[in-house]
Amino acid sequence: MERDGQRRFKAYGLTVSDVNPLLRLAHLGPLTPNELLHSSVLLTSAPVVSHSLNRLEAAGLVRRVPNEEDGRSVRVEITDEGRDLGAELAAQVREVQDSFFSPLSADERAVLAELLGRCLGNYLGVPPDAPVLV
Question: Within 13 A of 8's CA, how many CA atoms are on the CB side?
Fold first, then answer.
């Protein structure tokens, strides 16, 4: 699945590591780099997020702005161009996921999502009744 995503994202000059923060910002709005790092369950590190943000900023897809709540840090926000590209990339991600899960029926996908969600919630210490961000 990652290979297919990598191939698709390369056409946009991005890597899988770049796409995740872009989609998180499109979904969640402005975040500090640290909040961005912890907003995803994908295994990553602060240097990877920093490198991705540098690439996204150089491409004009995100911008760093002063954090009004804490003058020592910045918030990262998505640009209009980033939001437009994010919509295209989200569609690409859905295609990759649909292809990967195509052997499963809709009911099987729902059961799998429920079970994986429970395991992930347990791993992250999220209460079972907490809302899930997809």
Answer: 18
Question: Which residues are CB-neighbours of 56 under 8 A, at least 6 positions away?
Answer: 18, 21, 22, 62, 82
Does the pLDDT of residue 9 top 80, yes or no? yes
Answer CATH for 2-100 from 1.10.10.10, 3.30.420.40, 1.25.40.10, 3.30.700.20? 1.10.10.10
pTM of the model: 0.78
Q: What is the sign of the dihedral through the CA atoms of 55, 48, 18 and 82?
A: negative
pLDDT exceeds 90 at position 1: no
